[in-house]
Records
---
Amino acid sequence: MAMQFYASPEQIMRDRSELARKGIARGRSAVVLSYEGGVLFVAENLSSALHKVSEIYDRIGFAAVGRYNEFENLRRAGVRMADLNGLSYDRRDVTGRALANAYAQTLGAIFTEQSKPFEVEICVAEVGATPEADEIYRLTYDGSVNDEPGCMAMGGQADAIAGALRANHRGDMSLADAVKLALSALSSVGGEGGAARTIAANQLEVAILDRRRKGRTFRRITGAALTALLDGEAAAKAEEATARDETPKTPEPGPRKPTASAASADLEDKDPGPAGA
Amino acid sequence: MFTNAGTSSFTQFLSKVAPELLPGRRPLPPGLAADIAPHATTIVAIVSEAGVVMAGDRRATMGNLIASRDIEKVHPADAYSLIGIAGTAGIGMELMRLFQVELEHYEKIEGAVLSLDGKANRLASMIRGNLGAAMQGLAVIPLFAGFDLAATDPARAGRIFSFDVTGGPYEETGYDAIGSGSLFARAALKKRFRPGLSTPDAVRLAVEALYDAADDDTATGGPDLSRKIYPVVMTATAEGTHRLTESETAAVAEAVVAGRMENPGG
């Protein structure tokens, strides 16, 4: 009979943590911050097809760093859970907090029960009626949840990036300022000898949860709109373009929401004026 | 159960984790159950030059009684397509909600929108799943129409699909109607439909057709001027789906009723 070597539980957990932490630190970073018009996600991503930032539900977005297959699995799980709850109850009953809790359970179980933990760190963000009401949760490989009011950074040299982000972040920033801040924070590390570097627009994945929209608020900012935002000159124009045809509306919870249909409120819009996508 | 690799289809996911949420999966006692639930009635869809127009009356009936005067049977399926439901109201609403989530779910999981034919095929298989209940009198028939973003010719971008209890889809040319008043609505459309109608003309024609259906079918409700209940009219065009406002449909309905004061046959 083969002898089993004894390893203390403490040692096992430490080893798993180290594995996960190393895997996450190797990857590129992502930042999430709230600004005047919503919540902004910026991730450094060389691929334009494999997303690190995506939509979960009407007012909930998802960002992740680490191993793609692992966080993609978590993202799909989140979409399934949100859609199931939205169908069974109502669209308003799908919240970021519930989703963060579910992710914490899943990640915690994987960390303790499986031989290899997920090498991922994820962020669940829900856009509120005001920047103060935004909810940003950070979930780490071991299932711990942190509420990060205002802004957060993960992956790569997350601490340095978070420091740069937090020093200059304000809730009432415009979209252009927020994108610039996110970019300067992301590029503040990783150059020669720890110096700053430049990141091109095509290496960024940018998306927002637009506070002023009804229904599905998630929008990707790509191509010309993104370059315009980064250049800053046409910033105001680009911001207008991302807000598209919609005149700013404050989100309206409650009684006007249709209950017969499971379509999002922007499709079921019964107000006068332009509706649709 | 949420983290299995699985598919991009929400109904397939449900069939694994919560089959009781799928209308077709429920055991029904033997016998005919047609009279126990309200029925939703007439829906019409018309291709216009900009896309499609879909309109539905507001009545649901239960035998000889009116179960609802203001039920809404036409809804957006997603940003570019519309769905109208006729048949057993409860199951129809449930199928419609499920279909809406199905399309949104696929879009979120895959990061791409299904083709219009893909959506129609998906709906067909969902209707087929309800076949057992349909044979016991709880049939649901949808009408599906949308703006086809992949169409090369903008004049052919508006497309309509019909279904039967065994599935489908059957692509229709120009116009179609479903529900108890559909015979009369379709007859009216047959005489009045012309290819290349402008959207306002198509809206007017849809409301006229519903009026004709209500004229001859007791289960279809005409415009209710005293209660201010008008048909639900939606369009799907290159700009997305749009529901006409109450005042817009009121204006069209009043014009149609005024026209019929002069000439009851239209």
---
Amino acid sequence: MVPLGSGIVAVNPKVASVSDTISVDIKGYNTHFQEAGSSIKAWLKIDTLKLISCATSVSVANDQSITAKFHVPSIKLSKNDYLFADVVVNDSKDGNVMLDEAIRITNKSDDTLAAMSSSAASSNCIDDIKNTKATYLHFPYRSILYESIRNLYFHVPMWFTMMLIITISLVYSIKYLRTFNLNDDIIAVEASKVGIFFGVLGLITGSIWARFTWGAWWVNDVKVNGAAVTLLIYFAYLILRNSIDDEQKRARIAAVYSIIAFTMLVLFLIIFPRMNDSLHPGNGGNPGFNKYDLDSSMRMVFYPAVIGWCLLGMWILNIRIRMNRITKYFFEK
Amino acid sequence: MIKKIILSLTFILALIINISAQPMNSASGLEQTMVSGGKIYVAIAVLSVILVGIFFYLFSIDAKLRKLEDKAKQD
């Protein structure tokens, strides 16, 4: 199994004062501190001031935790003001790992602006942050997601498969309206059914994923609600079909409805999510996974996974179409 | 068949309501399990749902095919 990349889960303490010397316990995830040994460097980084302060000493407790000593720079801060500092750790095996806004820097008193002692900087202290990458293949580490980032290979392809199969349904609905061949109608209805099945799987898996990352089974998100509405529209398609007895009439009305349903699908799943901000990745003007969400190590698995799930969907669709034809054959006999 | 589906749906619904009725902030047993191991159990839960769903669907197709087979034997 490809491991997750490393990252920093937590630091302690989370608050420090200017000009202090602090000893920070850094807790890593999937890090190899012990293996990296003396190559570990740590920095405090204050982005707003473009200030970097390096650790004067780093001691390794185990693979997942180190203790680093920092001198918090002397910054001019009024009494109730504060700044955030990121903690960056670099080692030869994991490359750079970072925790954003890890430590809040406050001011104890109004007038403190002690000069930083020059002896603080020891010889192994580098003022520039090294920027190296991990030496092993890994999936991106994201806080909140952690290992559940692997759901990308399961949850997302469900929707890809659903889109593909629903598109097949649309194509055969149009084809039916041109030829009035009931064989096309069979393909259209079975494709809708299989498409709905994959859509329902996508909703359930999305709900589970949301619960343990966003914190709720259902969030009022454009894309999530849009997906639910789309499925309801396609449920209505099946109900509409069942309510008409005459075969040709049923097929014709269903085909027209299917075209309308597909335009709604495009609206709800493709257009609206891009017009609104949402928690869901791939929204708010950003058409898909960007480079921060999906790096090359994940693409390597993701694209084959999409093809695989789509083929599975097509196979199920194929079986259902053949079964429907046989049923019809018996029914006519 | 429809009765079976309705029954299983009610069961799943009851399960979900039962799970979501747990207080959100206090770390319940489920929450703790799912979040442990870097949330790897979330991925496992998602994969299991998909596998169970697909197997369920395939079994229902199998049952329908068996009915057709029986009918073919009768004719």
